[in-house]
Design brief:
This protein is α/β, with parallel strands linked by helices. Helices cover 28% and strands 25% of the residues. The chain folds into 2 domains: 172 residues, Alpha-Beta Complex (Quinone Oxidoreductase, Chain A, domain 1), CATH 3.90.180; 141 residues, NAD(P)-binding Rossmann-like Domain (Rossmann fold), CATH 3.40.50.
Length: 350
């Protein structure tokens, strides 16, 4: 069967190759691959920055933003052929740490987890793939052409879960959220904020293209001013940082009103120092009881919450997030940077 593969650590190795057909083990679903989303993680793996193939193999099947249709399902699994499904990316370590043993593999303490399409386990960028039935999420059939957005939405669902848990230290009723970055994560974070009934503001550097219209279509406010100016004007109780830009992160540390919660979701490459008045930042964070938390990946509960987010969303708005759709054989084009792109999707089969 055809699959999108790389040799981890080797830039320029991205290719559509023939790989052995997969066979479902007991308790697993056999899934016909429909599409995968392409994100920054995929581009970094294709660039040779990180990633690891299954033991004994040179090439890794990449693609972790999955969408497929069940071909075969074991009895008693709760799934049936024809179901639209997404696979959970992270798998707990084989000798689970305390978090993995409790289903919180997104919070793994020892780093021995594996991840489909990223670390030691094939991803979903193939004509067929398998997944344990208890690590798959069924989607509403109405999401058949946007279901690959579930994985990034799960990351956002976890970020909002962190907001609730951290804010729960004391009375917490935020009214305004500021999202920095209008990429897929930022826009989906704004979607959740709107669904929660908050006053949502999104800050991005692009004044043209589809992003301003997508934000306004949510009923949110779009900004292109610097973060300090915007935060002073809107006084967010919650800030979700989705750019990974060091200068934005630095400003975000002190951008909320007192008892604010800031969630950092963007991953930044090291070696990009920016000036920071640590004393002033520390003074404000401490005196205002602010909280800053990092959030990455998601567990099954977040995937299920994300499915509910997508089911409540306007499907036409979700479709507009996908700015390019390409067939699998044109996969290298999906890894080329385009200024107008929000989400690029590779269609594996119809």
């Amino acid at each position: 069967m055809r699959a999108l593969t790389v040799v981890p650590g080797q830039a320029g190795s991205l290719a559509v190759t023939d790989v052995p057909d997969v066979v479902a083990a007991p308790g697993e679903l056999l899934v016909d691959g429909l599409a995968v989303g392409v994100c920054g993680t995929d581009r970094e793996i294709a660039g040779g920055e990180y990633g690891s193939a299954p033991i004994g193999r040179d090439r890794l099947v990449i693609g972790h933003e999955s969408l497929g249709r069940v071909a075969e399902a074991p009895d008693g699994s709760g799934f049936s052929p024809g179901d639209l499904v997404v696979g959970v990316v992270r798998r707990p370590d084989p000798v689970p740490c305390g978090a993995c043993a409790r289903g919180e593999w997104d919070m793994c303490r020892n780093g021995r987890y594996t991840e489909h399409g990223i670390k030691d386990v094939d991803g979903f960028g193939s004509e067929r793939w398998v997944i344990e039935a208890d690590r798959a999420v069924r989607l509403d059939p109405a999401l058949a052409d946007v279901g690959m957005l579930l994985e990034p939405t799960s990351v956002v669902a976890k970020a909002w879960d962190q907001v609730d848990k951290v804010g729960g230290r004391a009375w917490f009723e935020p009214r305004t959220v500021l999202v920095t970055g209008a990429g897929p994560i930022g826009l989906l974070a704004a979607l959740v904020g709107v669904q929660r009934g908050l006053d949502v503001h999104v800050l991005d550097r692009n004044s043209d293209g589809p992003k301003p219209g997508l934000v306004r279509a949510l009923g949110a406010t779009y900004h292109i001013d610097d973060l300090a100016t915007v935060s002073d004007a809107v006084e967010p109780g919650v800030l979700i940082e989705a750019t990974g830009a060091p200068s934005v992160i630095t400003a975000a540390l002190t951008a909320t009103r007192p008892y604010g919660v800031t969630v950092l979701t963007g991953v930044t490459a090291p070696g990009r120092p920016v000036p920071l008045d640590v004393g002033a930042a520390n003074r404000e964070i401490v005196l205002e009881n602010d909280a800053i938390v990092g959030s990455v990946n998601a567990n099954l509960s977040h995937y299920r919450a994300a499915a509910e987010v997508l089911e409540r969303a306007d499907v036409d708005w979700l479709r507009a997030l996908v700015t390019r759709r390409l067939p699998l054989e044109r996969a290298p084009e999906a890894f080329e940077d385009a200024h107008e792109d929000i989400k690029v999707v590779l269609e594996i089969s119809s």
